[in-house]
Structures are given as C-alpha cells and as structure tokens.
C-alpha cells in the first residue's frame, strides 16, 4: 500500500507573457473537491475581468482522480498542458489554475499549449515540494493499569497523539501511518482491556 505522496507545501504563483497576453498561474495543495471549488471561486472573483480560468487537478495518493478544464480555449490547449506539468513534477493533491488576460494577438494552438505549460512550470519552480505521509486516526481506550505499556509503544513507534482524555478510562486519539496499522492492531490485541475505534 502506498501511504506517501508528493505535493507542494504552500500555495505558489507563476507567470508567463507572450504577445501581450499574460498568463498567471496559481497552484494550491488540496485534499478534496470542495477545496478545489472554493479556490476556483476565489480566483474567479479576484480575476473577474480575465477571459479564461483554465485548470487541472490531481487527487489521491495514487493520483487516480483528476480533471482538466480548458474554459473556452481550444480543446487540449490549456488543461492538458497544465496537467502535463503536474505529472512532470510527480505531484498529486494539487490544483493548478492558469488565468489568461488576452493581449489582442492570437497565439495559435501551439502557442497556447506552450504558454499554459510555461506558466504552470514557473509556479512549480517557485514551490517547495514535499513528501506527505498518509495517516489514519483511531481512538483507543484502556485501563490505567496498562498506561505505561501503551505509552511506551506509542513513543517507540513515533505515533502521534492528537488528544488525551482521562476519565474512568484513559482515551487517546492518535494518528498512525497506514502501513504501520497492522503492527499496531497486533500490539493492541495483546493488551487486556484496550478498545480501538477507527475515526
């Protein structure tokens, strides 16, 4: 199971100009289609005088969910080159939008492809590219008598504790790297009185 992916750390901006047309590229790290819709709405509002808002995105650790949009440009001249740069940099969980302000001179299909590609590439060249680990969240509850066993294990395996509640039992909310989950489940099953719920 692949439990890492490559994306950008923070939003970035790039630019490309040709024959009076200005191409402004924005790239955002995203996790959901709702985030994508929100980012697109924000850019349409900010650049409401631009003629085209073309974009591509990829989602998922395997990058298996994607979409391209030429937004009125000739088919294949905008969204496809943008996606090509996303793939060239090996990125996923990313949205790239290129906004075009028309300069009065037509660029032709090859000129458009080059412009959308170069604008996107310029944004990525300014980006900090990072590897992210996919983690699942669990809630575990246990008797205080086994606290030291649980704590020692969590510490030794570098498992992130998100929240602790001390009531009749100890309740921990934790985040675990996906490939470490089977090992963790085996450990938990060997301790008396521990309950686990996937969040």
Structure description:
Helix content is 31%, strand content 37%. It has 199 residues and is of the alpha+beta class. It has two domains: 4-131, Ribosomal Protein S5, domain 2 (2-Layer Sandwich), CATH 3.30.230; 134-198, Alpha-Beta Plaits (2-Layer Sandwich). The chain has a five-stranded antiparallel sheet with strand order 2-3-6-4-5, with helices on both faces. The protein has a four-stranded antiparallel sheet with strand order 9-10-8-11, with helices on one face. Strands 1-7 form a two-stranded antiparallel sheet. Helix 2 (79-88) runs parallel beside helix 3 (108-125). It is elongated and about 75 Å long. It starts with a strand and ends with a strand. 29% of the residues are buried. The mean pLDDT is 93.
Relevant terms:
5-stranded antiparallel beta sheet, 199 residues, 31% helix, Ribosomal Protein S5, domain 2, Alpha-Beta Plaits, 11 strands, 2 domains, alpha+beta
CATH superfamily of the largest domain: Impact, N-terminal domain
Summarize the helix and strand pattern as letters.
Answer: EEEHEEHEHEEHEEHE
Oligomer: single chain
* SS summary, helix count: 5
Q: Helices and strands: which structural class?
A: alpha+beta
- What is the averaged pLDDT score? 93
Q: Approximately what portion of the residues adopt beta-strand conformation? A: 35-45%
Side-by-side strand order of the widest sheet: 2-3-6-4-5
Q: Any idea what the CATH architecture of the largest domain is?
A: 2-Layer Sandwich
Whole-Å distance between the termini?
A: 20 Å
CATH class descriptor name of the largest domain: Alpha Beta
Give the number of domains.
Answer: 2
Q: Kindly identify the CATH topology of the largest domain.
A: Ribosomal Protein S5, domain 2
Helicity range of the residues? 25-40%
Radius of gyration: 23 Å
Largest sheet: 5 strands, antiparallel
- What shape does the CA trace take? elongated
Low-confidence blocks of residues: none
């Amino acid at each position: 199971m692949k439990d890492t992916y490559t994306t950008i750390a923070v939003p970035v901006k790039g630019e490309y100009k040709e024959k009076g047309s200005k191409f402004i590229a924005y790239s955002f790290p995203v996790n959901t289609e709702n985030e994508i819709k929100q980012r697109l709405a924000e850019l349409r509002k900010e650049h409401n005088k631009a003629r085209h808002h073309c974009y591509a995105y990829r989602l998922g650790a395997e990058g298996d969910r994607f979409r391209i949009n030429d937004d009125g440009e000739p088919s294949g001249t905008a969204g496809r080159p943008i996606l090509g740069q996303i793939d060239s940099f090996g990125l996923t969980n990313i949205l790239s939008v290129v906004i075009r302000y028309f300069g009065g001179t037509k660029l032709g299909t090859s000129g458009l492809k080059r412009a959308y590609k170069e604008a996107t590439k310029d944004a990525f060249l300014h980006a900090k590219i990072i590897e992210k680990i996919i983690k699942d969240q669990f809630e575990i509850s246990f008797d205080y008598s086994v606290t030291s066993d649980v704590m020692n294990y969590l510490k030794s395996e570098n498992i992130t504790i998100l929240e602790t509640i001390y009531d009749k039992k100890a309740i921990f909310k934790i985040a675990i790297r996906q490939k470490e989950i089977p090992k963790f489940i085996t450990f938990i099953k060997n301790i008396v009185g521990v309950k686990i719920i996937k969040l």
